[in-house]
């Protein structure tokens, strides 16, 4: 963690993912231990299961939300070299709308 924060931006967003949540009987680290470690090291924390899909997408969404919040507050500036963030090609960017949302329906019917 020290290396990540030293070599990257001090405002780097790091998430600790406890994997194989579905194998609770084989657990080597308790939820409380992992949660405490994450809190002491200023990390986000989620337990995930690739088998069931639990919290897998949420890990990415939570990380993205945190990055966006830091950009909006000015903690992270994509324009600053070494921030670890850069804007993608705007022609390739799409805003993802929830399925069945009004915007998506209007776009499909050209209303």
From TrEMBL:
UniProt keywords, alphabetically: GTP-binding, Nucleotide-binding
Compositionally biased intervals (Polar residues): 88-111
Protein name: RAB4B, member RAS oncogene family
GO molecular function, one term: GTPase activity
Pfam families documented for this protein: Ras
Ranges for region Disordered: 72-111
